[in-house]
Amino acid sequence: MKLPFAATLAGVLFSLFALSASAQGWPAKPVRIVVAYPPGGGIDVLGRQLADKLTPLWGQPVVVENKPGANTIVATDAVAKSAADGHTLLLTTDATFSINPHLYAKLPYDAQRDFAPVTMLVLLQQLLVAHPSLPANSVAELVALAKAKPGAINYASYGSGSQPHLAGEMLKNKAGIDLVHVPYKGISLAVPAVMAGEVQLTFAGIATSMPQLKAGRIKALAIGGAARSPLLPQVPTFTEIGYPEVETHAWFGLFVPAGSPREAVARIQQDTKKILDEPDFRQKQLVDKGYEVVGSASQDFVMYLRRDSESRGRAVRISGAKAE
């Protein structure tokens, strides 16, 4: 299967920064941010906050349009077929470009050919959380327990190929343990399932987990990423405890149709980064919610996507996940 962003960096950047006469006076009309998820979630909230702040900067209305469905494929296909004039943006997660191409035998668009990455907005790491009754307070204790009782411990995800599924299967593979995967129909159901004791484990974001951690309804065993979260400094990373291959991250990023004007791409990246770097917005809306602020340059995002797709592809192969 052809990996997304496997073309040479020079080729991708040539497409990304191709000069276009249509860039003159951008934006010349309202700008649409197509969000690949339903209203109300973290990515939708961030998209609407950006739209509110970009409208006066650009002198044109910036509107958010939610197009959820088919594991982000509905929104992605719509943007792929939009005019490459910089006025239609896709706001989505790593599921779209790092995971889906490895899950689906065929997609209605070409992730490599049809899109130009603009910027990664934020990165977020998920926690491995457990029901308080689980007699393990660390990953080492979890591994020992799982080896003593193969197949007796369950973990929840929100579907085959979802981030929790891939992380759980990679932990199983690297630790040599047997955990039972229990997929739920939606991200909002996994943590409540752990709280209710239906399953013992899941992977969840800090914002989702924090109220339940404080109330003692769940406990955290580890977190992804290279460094501990300042919000939970007592929780070790998978890397520091010897499992760097267990990746729990997700990211939010902006994309435009391939061939969009370089001036528009540069303006979108620069202005969104300006907003992300506003001290009050950065702290209250992002850092305090567990997001790592990125605001990457377009060429850096291209290179990151290549590495991310390769690592997620390995996880999909190990998991045996197939599109549902």
Question: What's the number of extended β-strand segments?
Answer: 11
Number of helices: 11
Tell me about the biggest sheet? 6 strands, mixed
**Strand proportion:** 15-25%
Helix content: 25-40%
Secondary structure elements and pairings:
Elements: H1 9-16, E1 31-35, H2 42-58, E2 62-66, H3 73-80, E3 88-93, H4 94-103, E4 115-124, E5 126-130, H5 139-148, E6 153-157, H6 163-175, E7 179-183, H7 187-195, E8 201-205, H8 206-214, E9 219-223, E10 250-257, H9 262-276, H10 279-286, E11 291-293, H11 298-319
Parallel strand pairs: 1-2, 1-3, 6-7, 6-8
Antiparallel strand pairs: 3-10, 4-10, 4-11, 5-8, 5-9
Give the key terms.
alpha/beta, D-Maltodextrin-Binding Protein, domain 2, 2 domains, six-stranded mixed beta sheet, five-stranded mixed beta sheet, 11 helices, 40% helix
Task: Briefly characterize the structure.
With 324 residues, the chain is an alpha/beta fold.
Descriptive notes:
The chain has 2 domains: 9-124 and 250-319, D-Maltodextrin-Binding Protein, domain 2, CATH 3.40.190; 126-223, D-Maltodextrin-Binding Protein, domain 2. It is of the alpha/beta class. The strands form 2 sheets. The chain has a 6-stranded mixed sheet with strand order 2-1-3-10-4-11, sandwiched between helices. Strands 7-6-8-5-9 form a 5-stranded mixed sheet, sandwiched between helices. Helix 6 (163-175) links the parallel strand 6 (153-157) and strand 7 (179-183). 43% of the residues are buried. Helix 4 crosses helix 11. It has 11 helices and 11 strands. Residues 6-23 have low confidence and may be disordered.
